Amino acid sequence: MKTRRDFIKISALGLGAATLAGSNLKWVWGSNTGGPVTESASAIPRLSRYPTYCEVCFWKCAGWIYLDEEGKIQKVTGNDQDPHCNGRLCPRGTGGVGLYHDKDRLKTPLIRIEKNGKQTYREASWDEALDLVAGKMKEIGNKYGAESIALFNHGSSGSYFGHLLKAYGSTNITAPSYAQCRGPREVGFELTFGSGLGSPEPTDIRDTRCLVLIGSHIGENMHNGQVQEMSDAIDRGATIITVDPRFSTAASKSKFWLPIKPSTDMALLLAWIHVLIYEDLFNKEYVEKNTIGFEQLKLHVEKLTPEWAYGITTIKPHIIRETARAMANASPAVIVHPGRHVTWYGDDTQRSRAIAILNALLGSWGRRGGFFFKESLSIPDYPHPPFPEPAWSWKETHAGKFPLAKLSVSNALVDASIPETGKEHIIRGWIVSGTNLPMTMPQKDQLLKAIQSLEFLVVVDTMPMEITGFADVVLPECTFFERYDELRESPGREPYLGLRMPAAEPLYDSKPAWWIAKKIGERLGLGEYFNYDDLKEVIEWQLGQLGTSLVEMQEVGVKKFERKSGSLYMTENQPKEFNTNSGKIELYSSELAELGFDPMPVYTPHPEPPQGFYRLIYGRAPMHTFSRTANNPNLVDLMKENAVWIHPNVADIWGLKKDQYVWLKNQDGVVSHFPVKVRLTERIRWDSVYMVHGFGHRDKKLRLAYGRGANDSDLITNVMMDPLMGGTGMRGNFVTILTEDPEKEDKS
Amino acid sequence: MRYAMAIDTRKCVGCSDCVVACQTENHVPFGFCRDWVTETVDGSYPNVELEIRSERCNHCENAPCVRCCPTGASHFVEGGIVLVTRNKCIGCGACIQSCPYDSRYSHPDGYVDKCTFCNHIVSKGGKPACVSVCPTKCMYFGNLDDPNSEVSNALKNRKHKVLAPEAGTNPQIYYLI
Amino acid sequence: MKEELFISGRDIPNIDPFLHIWHWQIPIYLYLGGLAAGILFFAGIFTIMGKEKDMKTTVKWAPFLVPGALIIGLLMLFLDLKHQLFFWQLYTTIRLQSPMSWGAWVLMFITPLSLIWVATYLKEVFPQWSWKFHFLEKMELLAVKNRKGMAWVMITLAVILGIYTGILLSAFNARPLWNNSILGPLFLVSGLSTGAAVIMWMTKSHYERKMMSRIDLVLIIVELFFITHMIMGMLAGSSVQIAAADLFLGGQFTVSFWVFVIILGLVFPAVLEILELAGYKIPVAIPAILILFGGLVFRFIMVEAGQITRYLY
Questions:
Q1: Per-residue model confidence as pLDDT tens digits over C244-300
Q2: CB–CB of C312 and B163 under 8 A?
Q3: From the CA of B161, how many Å to the nearest CA of chain C?
Q4: For a Cys staple, B131 with which of A154, A738, B139, C312, CB 3.0–4.6 Å?
Q5: A63 φ, ψ to 5°?
């Protein structure tokens, strides 16, 4: 079937072969083979090491890039002074050099053409590609309004393209990480404590005496600072309680592992609240001073006893009581971890509310060993004209749903891109940068329908990820090793500034995102919004404003600044005002009540797998992140494919052997495109199977990643939307096992 | 001077940072590794136990690989570190046969290669790449002959084990359990 | 269920999932080394006993095979090396604790010695042979005069060579199948047996054939005892050794070991030889070929199986 945008999956188009031959390995001394980037700026100086902060995941650990004797990028280590990593990068960061050296990197701009009846790409010059992008944007802007262009983004490139769009007149900017990942807990904590958690979360793990992980697998997720601090906590003898249907790495280090039946976490949380209240274990002083709604809460959980929870969760009542007591004993140095990827069953905001309430009862918010009050540095904005006011924004795309969403729900923007009669606000063009939508978003059918309806799709990426197969124009971004980027100011115990500078000229014909955004902006007549020739000028100006300089930052990499927002923890004599309706921590949420939602969390049962099906649980491996590392040669060396974890008794039923390859078929008949290896293990329940996310790449241009493992997001077709903020609950998908290659229709 | 390593299995999460750091530091070719991580699972759900270990050459005191090397390419240096002199190695593979820990491999360039405790860094007073990078700080390295070194302290205060003690090689990597 | 796995993606060629760093070159070398040792041993011992006249093949003709066998063996060793340009490093030092070093030096001496031995008998095969150079003629005379002395040296080196092929393997304490002290003597006896089989086959003298045949029979019986001893020892050892023995008692090498090595390679030839002694006419080629074949298969199996056995994982 001819589609507007065929997925171009031709491998080795012979693209970039010529540029590969000329690929510049002579740099550092200033020879300028990277093209116009450094027209005006000076060449990259020869330093013994180059400061940077890692872009592989969102933790942004600061580090140093080292060159070998031949002047090639050899390795990257952590910056000792940086509290995000304390001098130790995680495996993705250490292996980050593979991103730079990856031979499959995008090398030149590509433009979609039709040749001999088939759609393919041809190489283009930057001028040509940028002219086309700007031209299309103008066309869409004139026809439908600038608001019809949306940005899907993850990572540092977002600030430049976001700036561009806002200058152009659109605020339809979305990050899948909100609705697909952490959105519900932001809202849940905002409703309770008046502030969200942000990134990284302000969890004081290194000083905690009890860490409760419910749906968090620290150690398999590699949130560097948190893994390090959990290790410190273990050294100090902290009690770890893990609630997970799977025996995760964290579970193996826990004093208590609660092998909970999947989808019943809410019942456990409510039972814990019950025990804390009715056994008088909650932190009375804290609750008295800082919270409101205690009596309602007490009444609400009266019947939600551990015995009641036992029947639902299969966790024995005495364990529920024992763990609640352990938490209370440690109070206030106790953390019920909010988790990170919390979009499970559609009631996730409420579940996050339950976690927040639990923390409030334990008195850990704003206390040492609990949650500290984070602060990030405020970096002055480089002067630019004010942004125009758009006629409509992503709020309109929510169509009255998701009243508590403070950021755009990506699925809503996807839906808004499918023109239907009666629809008022339609998105006509996308800029996608730093996110591989086909492997990120559930409900792929909807995504593909939207992509086919678009008038224009431009993708900015470093690698030929699947999303590039749908683009009209592909723009090659250089890796973080090759560019300046905005100064890092992520929140922490103290504000720390981080510098990223290039250690090498961009390879091939790739360019930094700021340059791409600026060049598009200039063509759109928005030059005054990009009033600089090189981002370096912006950084130098900002550093000057902050009282430091580029020279100093090149020396140290990170710089600490004094806290301005008050103390790290709550102090005795300073009553804290919380940013809620009542000014207090809301155990009973008035805001929710006003909107007609449950003011206190309620347990709802969720569908269970039918006979012969197993719940699909997915998670992370510490050596990979998202789907973006699956082609990195250093990291592929550690883990080249995922495996589906199956309990041995289940394997017996199906006659499966160790390391056999099977296909998974979900409840809606979707079959995994590639087979996946079986791991027979006692670490998983018999009603579930587990896979690490990010494999099963279909783009042949990713030579190391293509065909390895299976893609779990393909199998996530049943999505339970969270009515409060639009989070996409994805754990309600069930799979059965096919031992033979099924007949498949062409999936593109 | 007796270099040794103590690795705390209670803290190791199996992230394999040690493996990739070693690779970038020592130019280990893809498809080979000087150190690796193993996982042992025991029991049956939900009574399951897990042990994760980062393994490498144990720089054994009674190293069979040094003993059986016909050219003396495998040798001890200061601190008991076992090294391979590339230009003396003939690639006969006897040392690979003799190692109970499978810690040696045949490098594509012909000689036999393995973990060197990053001797090029350690001899200048630093720590091996794997120890320096480990995010959980579960690896301790130092001089066992010094009672105040962190490795001596780790062994003093914790129960520990070595791998395959019955092979008689007296390995110098201790796993804190 | 117990699981033990690599989680850092380790998959080193020839090491994982099972060690397989020595391929066909090594068993062939061990075999040829044992064969050469056997032939030289008998040549030497019968020379010392003064029986050259009765045991012409043993003393004079069979040794002609030896230099070729040793050189092919050395070639095999060289091919097996992975850093071949540096092979000469073997001869810059002698490491007394390394069986491989012993082997390198023994071969260094025994090969020229066997060449000299053979050279002294060249004139008997090729009467027109002339050494061209005067000093070579003189050396030949010297050698012929000192045959008994050479024989003593040859016996010593032959025994060392034969036993070393076994000790080379048994000194690897990481390989439970090999790590027993009977392997050295076992390979020596096996080498002697194959040497005797070659001589038995080559000779035209009835007396010689009977003598070697009887010697071979005794050697086979001793070999069977040693193999039994080895397996019983492994079964009475630690769990890794029991696992090693299991390779032959139900594992993947059971059939090839019992059929090719024991029955066809040892028992059947022994039976044939007993029948021969009892008066039946058996074409000598049959037991000889079976013994030679059995010896070769034995080396192949031992090298392959030994690498599979291990302490960990």
A1: 999 999 999 999 999 999 999 999 999 999 998 888 888 889 999 999 999 999 999
A2: yes
A3: 14
A4: B139
A5: -150, 180
CATH code, residues A614-738? 2.40.40.20
Does residue B98 contact residue C174 with C-beta atoms inside 8 Å?
yes
Locate the chain A residue with the closest alpha carbon to C8: A638
* Chain C residue with minimum CA distance to B102: C15
Q: Is the pLDDT of residue A31 over 70?
A: no
* pTM score: 0.91
Q: Is the peptide bond before A464 cis (omega within 30 degrees of 0)?
A: no
Q: What is the pLDDT of residues A415-425, one digit of tens each?
A: 999 998 778 89
Task: State residue C144's pLDDT score.
Answer: 84
- Residue pLDDT, tens place only, A144-154: 999 999 999 99
Best probe of the A interface among C4, C5, C12, by most A CBs < 10 A, is C5
The domain in which residue C135 lies consists of: 25-308
> Is the pLDDT reported for residue A746 higher than 60?
no
How large is the average pLDDT for residues B51-79? 95
Nearest CA in chain C to B54: C8
Q: C82, C11, A74, C6: which is closest to B32 by C-alpha?
A: C11
- Residues 119-148, chain B: which have Cβ within 8 Å of A? 132-138
3-state secondary structure of A742: coil
- In a mutational test of the B interface, the residue from A94, A97, A687 whose CB has the highest number of chain B CBs within 10 Å is A94
**pLDDT tens digits, one per residue of A429-484:** 999 999 999 999 988 899 999 999 999 999 999 999 999 999 999 999 999 999 99
Task: Say how far apart CA A609 and CA A600 lie, in whole Å.
Answer: 28
Is C183 within a domain? yes
Domain ranges of chain A: 184-374+575-595, 614-738
A88–B137: do the CB atoms touch at under 8 Å? yes
C6 within domain boundaries: no
CATH of the domain at C284: 1.20.1630.10
Name A132's Cβ contacts closer than 8 Å, sequence gap at least 6: A111, A124, A472, A473
**Structural domain containing residue B66:** 3-176
Query: Cβ distance C162 to C38 under 8 Å?
Result: yes
Cβ neighbors of A486 (< 8 A, separation 6 or more) are A156, A159, A379, A535, A538, A539
B150 and chain C in contact, CB less than 8 A: no
Q: At what angle are helices C285-308 and C25-48 packed, to 10 degrees?
A: 130
Interchain proximity C1–A648, CB inside 8 Å: yes
Q: Give chains near A: 3+ CB pairs under 8 A.
A: B, C
DSSP A11: S
Asked if pLDDT for residue C1 goes beyond 50, the answer is yes
Count of domains forming chain C: 1
The domain spanning residue B113 has which CATH number? 3.30.70.20
- CA–CA dist C25, B62 (Å, integer): 29
Q: What is the DSSP string of A146-212?
A: GGGEEEEE-STHHHHHHHHHHHHT---EE-HHIIIIIHHHHHHHHHHHSS---SS--B-GGG-SEEE
Q: What is the 3-state secondary structure (H, E, C) of A643-690?
A: EEEECHHHHHHHCCCCCCEEEEEECCCCECCCCEEEEECCCCCCCEEE
Q: Which fold has domain A184-374+575-595?
A: Dimethylsulfoxide Reductase; domain 2 (3.40.228)
Contact residues on chain B for C95, CB-CB shorter than 8 A: 69-72
Judge: A75–B24 Cβ closer than 8 Å, yes or no: yes
Please give the tally of structural domains in chain B. 1
* CB-CB contact of A110 with A457 (8 Å): no
